[in-house]
Amino acid sequence: MNNNEKLYLPAGWVNPARIFNSGYPIDLCLGGRGIGKTYGCLSYTHKHQIPFVYMRRTQAQLDAVSIPALNPFNQVAADQGFVMSCKKSSKYSVEFRSGEDPDQPPDGIGIALSTFANIRGMSAERYDVLLFDEIIPERHERPIKEESSAFLNVIESINRNRELSGKGPMKIILLSNTNTINSKILDSIGATMVIDKMIRRGLQVQRIGDLIEVIRYIDSPISKKKSGTLLYQIANNADFVDMSINNKFSASDFEAVRLQPLAEYVPLVIVSGVTVYRHKSLDRYYIVDRPHAGIKEYGKLPLALKEFRKKYYYLYKQLITGHIYYNSIKSKMIFEDIWR
């Protein structure tokens, strides 16, 4: 493990060696736009000849990178004087090649989270790194059905043969802008509450057990320089600027997350593992991310949620009129997802 390496290179860009040599199987890297997260990691794989798997959330995003103008290696290759082609190798995958010999294995392969289950017989044994780019969707993007399960299935599928044969696990690098903290992938690896704590405490680096390192690039020298460029001087969208420059999640993610004195509330019902409390005297409700013993409980299955929505339909009105508070970002995510 080498956690002494600095987060940034002398020129201000993200330092990829800090990520690759962290000593943790999974590194989650969150930062503003254009600070060198993807560029640095792609450059590192080429410089050190590390076979890689490059993943995007959707097939449409993966298909786009096979268009020459959108190849993610373009800038790296131009700066360092090599050629890296990206072409479709099957309906659901692409391959990256820096050489022209078709008998040689590719430098890397590209897959999509949304269609990975359709790939048959893919062996990932020779690939040492999974680079998952832009793991958090932008707000206008549709969620992938069972996204957390799909992600964990990818991890299981590409790792299982390696570890069973005595090799170490594949290095998994998760990269994203801070579009929204309401991400099924963040939640699936137990990162949501950790990031919430990091934000409140101003932390840049946090570990989750011995498996995951979370890095927040909150003081990027490149972001500071970009803040003076034309786009960010004319931008009139606070969330866009905060995400792109200040590495902040949307303010709406944390709206109504406000600790309340529980003694002023009474437990009403449990749903999907969170407890709904009703205020004793005010038209107000409080959602807490743990169950309260001895009250009616609805599980997470569709039929149970349908029954809950039917019986407690009035809570949706309370939600949209701002009469509901939450003890954490997790309880907010869970409760709001029930009504989507």
Describe it:
The protein is an alpha/beta fold and 340 residues long. A hairpin with a 2-residue loop joins strand 10 (265-271) and strand 11. The radius of gyration is 22 Å and the shape is elongated. Helix content is 32%, strand content 20%. It has helices at residues 16-20, 37-47, 59-65, 74-80, 147-164, 184-188, 192-201, 221-226, 230-234, 238-244, 302-311, 314-320, 329-338; strands spanning 26-31, 52-56, 85-90, 93-97, 108-112, 129-132, 171-176, 205-208, 212-217, 265-271, 274-279, 285-288, 297-298, 324-326. It has 13 helices and 14 strands. It has 2 domains: 16-251, Rossmann fold; 262-338, no CATH class. The two termini are 42 Å apart. The strands form 2 sheets. Strands 3-4-5-2-6-7-1-9-8 form a 9-stranded mixed β-sheet, sandwiched between helices. Strands 13-10-11-12-14 form a 5-stranded mixed β-sheet.
What topology emerges from the helices and strands here?
Elements: H1 16-20, E1 26-31, H2 37-47, E2 52-56, H3 59-65, H4 74-80, E3 85-90, E4 93-97, E5 108-112, E6 129-132, H5 147-164, E7 171-176, H6 184-188, H7 192-201, E8 205-208, E9 212-217, H8 221-226, H9 230-234, H10 238-244, E10 265-271, E11 274-279, E12 285-288, E13 297-298, H11 302-311, H12 314-320, E14 324-326, H13 329-338
Parallel strand pairs: 1-7, 1-9, 2-5, 2-6, 6-7, 10-13, 12-14
Antiparallel strand pairs: 3-4, 4-5, 8-9, 10-11, 11-12
List keywords for this structure.
elongated, alpha/beta, five-stranded mixed β-sheet, single chain, 340 residues, Rossmann fold, nine-stranded mixed β-sheet, 2 domains, 13 helices
